[in-house]
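Q: Sequence in, structure out?
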Amino acid sequence: MIQALIEELKSQEGLDALVLAGSRTGMGSDPFSDYDLYLYAETPLSLEIRRELAERYAKQAEVGNNFFGEGDEFLLKDGTYADFMYRSLSWAEDEVKRVWVDCHGQVGYSTAFIHNLKTSQILFDPQHRFAALQEQLSSEYPSALVQAIIAKNHPLLRSKLTASYYEQIEHALVRNDLVSVAHRTSALLASYFDVLFAFNRQTHPGEKRLIQWAEHTCSRLPSNFAADVQAVVQGIGQADILQKITVLLDHLDELLGL
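A: Exactly. Output:
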């Protein structure tokens, strides 16, 4: 059924590209993995068309989701899950320029969308614009981008003068604010992985299976990498969380030569 739906999507007027992304195109696909379909057009398909598609193909659907950007979610009549995300190629081209060409890092997940573009499977690309983006991204990982991502994220871990993640967690523990501890620890791990993937000149795969992805793609990992990350995650809410974070960050700094 998913193939019939894809063929119908490809026939929609104004569609610039249709690609499959997410776990179905990378490491870690399993029976629970849905189909992440990205529809690139300057204007998303109308809600009327999307509701019509849902009526014909889905036994349950949420059309017009705006929680994480414009999208729809279908549970198809054969039990397959499909997520639809609406983007524009002009936006994607701007993102490639901002990150890959101009080498701008951000706080956490700096190259996550670049990774999405690089690893997408093209289903429809009549003007070859998406293929051109992938060709551009096949070039060597820019050294300036490595430096920009590390410069943006590493000081936040614990070395900046005030309000590092380490300091924020320390203060939250004194206040017995466990929600803040969990929130800031998650942010620390996001920047930690952003640094680690950049250091290895690997694009950031997103939020899932980060330990496995790093072990699979990164040739240089901190000492005791997986155990250190797991210890920090399991230590959230525990009195010794700072000690575990210290070990994690010490091993990262040893890898970076700091």
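The mean pLDDT is 95.
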